[in-house]
Amino acid sequence: MRLETIAIKILPKFILAKFGVNFGIGKFAFDQKLDIKADITQKYGFSGDILDLYLNNKNQVVHKWHHYIPIYEKYFARFRGRKIRFLEIGVSKGGSLQMWRKYFGEEAIIFGIDIDPNCAQFNGQAGQVRIGSQDDLIFLESVITEMGGVDLILDDGSHNMEHIVATLNYLFPKLSNGGAYMIEDLHTAYWKNFGGGYRSKSNFFSFVADLIDDMHHWYHLNKVKRPLISNNCASIHIHDSIVVIEKDNVFEPTHSQIG
Ligand SMILES: C[S@@+](CC[C@H](N)C(=O)[O-])C[C@H]1O[C@@H](n2cnc3c(N)ncnc32)[C@H](O)[C@@H]1O
Which fold has domain 31-247? Predict the structure, then answer.
């Protein structure tokens, strides 16, 4: 049994919180004898075809939290059926690339990267797979060059706070205008073994707080802290464990009165 699992069983919650113990995701697992489709449609009132693509996924495993499915649709739908360039960080068992191919269509340029060399077996199936680490900037550069640029990024990789920030800082400036950058599984932001912690400076949501301040720099006298992102940050969306940053030109706001 993992030391953390034993600690969770015997120590009071306030002590666990102090040490940022990661209690894992096991307790949230859906009982697969029950109806996944009913769970998602009933809770979220959602019935888009991405749900069927997820449910009908075969041979290569895809692992998703149920509430992510409508969130994907909300931000990804406008990229469907187009020759977009999509990068997924974290290939794992190959099922998600398979799902994205069906979702975005044959025209899309789909690349997946993973640090695990076993993922090379999926290369050339639903998309191209390249092996390397998401915090290796030379590797990222080579992938983006090969892709001919990038319009949409999904970070489902290490979920390590330093990696998330390094990858975002490097890739967001490369993202095309009108593109979107989604980071998932951000419950890890609260866990020390992912470099996070409750209200910790390294928690990714502290970085997001900087972006919010930067977005409103017109209205205060403090320095812009994250210009690589905020100079072209059109919007920031926060969901449970997901952050989406949409990229576009940013203009000084103005107002007028009519009538
Ligand atoms: C959560 S899984 C991805 C799941 C997959 N996207 C899906 O939806 O089924 C995370 C993956 O990230 C990979 N990974 C871990 N550290 C990484 C790193 N530094 N760079 C790139 N990939 C990494 C792991 O090998 C693992 O396959």
Answer: Rossmann fold (3.40.50)
